[in-house]
Amino acid sequence: MRSALMLFLLFVLSALIAPIIAGPALSLSVSGATQPEESNSLKVKATLQNAGDEILRLLNDPRSVMAPEWDTNTFGIAKVDDGAAPSFAGVLVKWSPELARANNLMTILAPGQSVEFVHDLAKAYDFSRAGRGNYTIDAFDNLFTHVDASGNLVSIRATTNPTRLVITLSEKHYAGSHTSPSHRLTRRAQFLNCTDEQQDRIMSALNPAQKYAEESVNYLDAQSSSTTRYESWFGKYSPSDKQTVLGHYKGIAGANMHGFKYDCSCNRMDAFAYVYPRKFGTIYLCAQFFNAKQTGHDSRAGTLIHETLHFVKLAGTMDNAYGQKNCRALAKDYPDKARANADSHEYFAENIPHEK
User: Fold this and answer.
1) CA-wise closest residue to 237 among 136, 320, 338
2) Under a CB-based contact definition with an 8 Å cutoff, are residues 69 and 119 in contact?
3) Parallel, antiparallel, or unpaired for β 87-88 and 125-126?
């Protein structure tokens, strides 16, 4: 009897513990020097550990701690005493999880294995207004994408441990890269590091991008109630919310993309393009932009819509979700984030598949 009771208790205990240690799991922590000594460096270290019992194949999402080379908006930073935060001065990237998977751009972690990523906050954030002081720093997004054994993309949320770092700032910590001026628009497009063929592919997308913007303005101007097309990408309809979206497209329609500067030096196979949102008029084009069709789903013209909307001067949209599936889910669950999402605007403009 006693033996049977012990076996029963062991069974119950194992059932309770198994969900905690079995399956995919991640832990994330942030650490760093309390008083940076390098003249212009504010480095922090993000440590990601496989806390489960399965091998993890994690995509190197530029929004996460796994891609420090991108200088994206990766961290939540706030001053302890008054909550002041540095302004974001890094890049926003049109990235594709599917392309990252196809090109094996991922980090593989065995159970118990950890990996460290070093980020220089001075490259992505401008501390000049927030000033010196004590800051709480943690990962802005703890959601990661795992490629399972069947090739499916599976979201995993890491457990996090916010770290309070004491940062002593001086002018050297925020002088330099953040003071670069925006591109001065010219009558003709300017090209940097672009071949003749790349220039042709850029130029062929400019007029279609302009038509996408103008068609979107005309559609929204005529809209007085909810439509399938609107709700697919921006969620529940209201006149005031529609005006917000309409204002974004009017900004693009009035912008002179023919006078932008285009830099073709990015060779990433999982990205289409990126911009510095505060540096109006310069778009950096990556390998997938030139592989894309002129118009249609995830097209060159659509990419130009996406990137132009990132500029703070026009709309200041973010990358809250990538891909049609995720953007449709965003519109349904978080319409406010959808109205501020660049891919959502691109897919509305491309309208593939066609919706009324």
Assistant:
1) 338
2) no
3) antiparallel
Tally of CB atoms within 10 A around 312: 15
- Distance separating alpha carbons of residues 151 and 18, to the nearest angstrom: 25
Q: Looking at the chain, which residues constitute the CATH 2.60.40.2970 domain(s)? A: 26-33+41-171
* For residue 30, pLDDT beyond 90: no
> How far, CA to CA in Å, does 312 sit from each of 180, 198, 308?
15, 27, 9
Tokens of 355: 């919706």
Closest CA relative to residue 247, chosen from 303, 157, 156, 316: 316
CATH for 26-33+41-171, options being 2.60.40.2970, 3.40.50.300, 1.10.1740.10, 3.40.50.1370: 2.60.40.2970
Render pLDDT for 222-238 as a digit per residue (tens, 0 to 9).
Answer: 999 999 999 999 999 99
Q: What is the dihedral of CA 7, 8, 12, 18, to 10 degrees?
A: 30
Asked if pLDDT for residue 176 goes beyond 50, the answer is no
Of 171, 307, 350, 355, the active-site residue reads: 307
CATH of domain 190-350: 3.40.390.10
**What whole-number distance in Å separates Cα of residue 68 and Cα of residue 74?**
9
Bridge partners of 94, per DSSP, are 273
The pLDDT score that the predictor gives to residue 132 is 76
Parallel/antiparallel/unpaired status of strands 26-32 and 159-161: parallel
Q: Which helix (H) or strand (E) holds 212?
A: helix 196-222
Is the pTM here over 0.85, yes or no? yes
Strand, coil or helix: 47: strand
Residue with tokens 């990015």: 266
- Whose structure tokens read 């990962």? 139
Tell me which H or E stretch contains 107.
strand 106-109
Note if 307 is an active site residue: yes
Give the helix/strand (H/E) hosting 120. Answer: strand 114-120
Give Cα separations from 53 to 153, 217, 331 (angstroms). Answer: 18, 51, 34
Positive or negative torsion for Cα 208, 209, 214, 215: positive
All CATH 3.40.390.10 domain ranges in the chain, comma separated: 190-350
Q: Which residues have C-beta within 8 Å of that of residue 246, sequence separation ≥ 6?
A: 217, 220, 221
